[in-house]
Amino acid sequence: MTLEKEKSKLILHTCCAICAAGLIESLKERFLITLFFYNPNITSQEEYNKRKEAAIILAKHYQLDFVEGEYKPESWLTLVVGLENEPEGGKRCLVCFKDRLLKTAQFAKNSQVDNFTTTLLASHLKNKQVIAEIGQKIAQKNDLNFLASFGGQLRAKEITQELGLYCQKYCGCRYSFRG
Ligand code: SF4
What we know:
This protein is of the alpha/beta class. It is built from seven helices and five strands, in the order βααβαβααβαβα. The chain has a five-stranded parallel beta sheet with strand order 3-2-1-4-5, with helices on both faces.
């Protein structure tokens, strides 16, 4: 087991607690993790608050630092103008991934942390290869390391149930809401 003082720091962009729940136990063996909650794509404030609260519960449970990024859904909506009717997984999502990974990399840089990654890679609904490519490009430009793969999703369901974490029903933006 790696000693705490020997561990590298990692900024873990956290899209939601459910995706983070299965990753933290294996990642914290190697890294000192900060959860970075930057998700202006969640256009409903009520929904945003529920997901943020769940991420805070998870951070407290594992005694991790939690940092909330800027929440300006109106600015995010301007990024995806013209892409409103794209299907989930299409061009709008590329813009969305890029925005969240870029802000995470900037946060890592400002915090003098060399490593970053995202829980988006844990979602079985997302294209992992596309996300990994975006993350690696951003990392290269910013002289950072992007962690593109982790161990398995250990105990995600168990932890979610144990902590009573909120489970969202849709991806996040108003265009992905199916009622
Ligand atoms: S569907 Fe999800 S990933 Fe795609 S733009 Fe909306 S919030 Fe972002």
